[in-house]
Amino acid sequence: MSNYKTRYASNPQSVKNYNTEELRSEFLIENVLKEDNIEWIYSHYDRFMVAGVVPIKSTVTLETIDPLKSTYFLERRELGIINIGGTGAVYVDGKKNSLAHKEALYVGQGNKEIVFESEDSKKPAQFYLNSTPAHKAFPVKKIGADDVEVIELGSPETANARTLRKYIVNSVVDVCQLQMGMTTIKTGSSWNTMPAHVHDRRMEVYFYFEVPKDQAVCHFMGQPKETRHIWMADGEAVISPPWSIHSGSGTSSYSFIWGMAGENLDYGDMDVCKINELR
Ligand SMILES: O=C(O)C(=O)C[C@H](O)C(=O)CO
Ligand SMILES: [Zn+2]
After folding, report:
1. Which CATH architecture has domain 3-277?
2. I need a surface site. Which of 164, 174, 242, 260 has the fewest CB within 10 A?
């Protein structure tokens, strides 16, 4: 059986009093990508699950974990996978789905055996995984470069020029509630998700990657008038409660994968904060 760690939901009034260590232990997920092993973070925010697997020595099979009380992982769940490493494959009940760098796969409820494989162990695949509860079985779908919806956002003048790629959203693939995409900051810009927003209807998880080893991203969270920050390194993720902004500024350019779940499937459902009113 795969390992897991639980993260409970927090009240914003309590979070105001958290010190640096408490903020990090509640919201930061270090070393997301694990070699030959899946170690889930099971969040009580919308029962959202986060993991990353790098198959090197062997293939890795997705197993259920105790809190799901299911006979197999996807009995009542859906799964989104984005490969940020070398070419790999995901076998869904024996059917091979090849995933090149930055290709994604949606796997719906009811699929029993999921196996992850790298094509070349010297350039292994790096599969980032998000999973949410599901109520309906939608078909498996691969999302390649031509399927992704791309939007250019921000500008160099406001240091927030970035490319946002929507992979697993309801205009691209049928889903119950999971949404996933990738945002890349352009060279010279630093800010993601600025102007910041909240969406009390949905929680979100950001997974930062392509952060140079000696650089960092300062991730901003908290209620708009009570913000906090968490310094983050390459390969780390952060849980964003529904009541929190989720924005970041890097000391270099970087990318991140966003994943969301909750009340609706409208990507644009955001309550935007006025920049000069943030505190
Ligand atoms: O840079 C951005 O802006 C984002 O990536 C925003 C996220 O997609 C998001 O927060 C969606 O709610
Ligand atoms: Zn958001």
Report:
1. Sandwich (2.60)
2. 174
